[in-house]
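[recover] target loaded
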């Protein structure tokens, strides 16, 4: 999450990076980052609470924290940076990625599939 925060709020306008022009590719990147954050967030919550937090509640917490975090980052981009801008579509891609990541973790480890979480 530190990487996401820094890469979201630091200016890259002076860098000589590769210029790849794929329409809306940044939305795919937003989706993937937040998918991974929520997916790993479910594991983090379950491990930190020694599985005392039910899987359903862990999924809910991980998704909500990632969504709120994504919205905060977009607001900070809008208000604190000069060459970056907050985008509602980025926040939407973040949210959809977070929801997908959390629910994929739930479906993989809910006991309905071949991967089961030990209680």
């Amino acid at each position: 999450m530190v990487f996401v925060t820094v890469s979201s709020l630091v200016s890259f306008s002076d860098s000589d990076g590769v210029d790849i022009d794929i329409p809306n590719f940044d939305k795919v990147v937003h989706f993937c980052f937040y998918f991974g954050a929520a997916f790993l967030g479910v594991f983090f919550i379950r491990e930190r609470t020694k599985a005392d937090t039910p899987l359903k509640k862990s999924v809910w917490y991980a998704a909500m924290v990632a969504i709120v975090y994504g919205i905060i980052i977009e607001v900070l981009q809008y208000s604190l940076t000069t060459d970056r801008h907050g985008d509602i579509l980025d926040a939407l891609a973040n949210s959809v990625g977070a929801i997908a990541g959390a629910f994929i973790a739930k479906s993989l480890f809910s006991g309905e599939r071949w991967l089961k979480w030990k209680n």
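[recover] notes: The mean pLDDT is 83.
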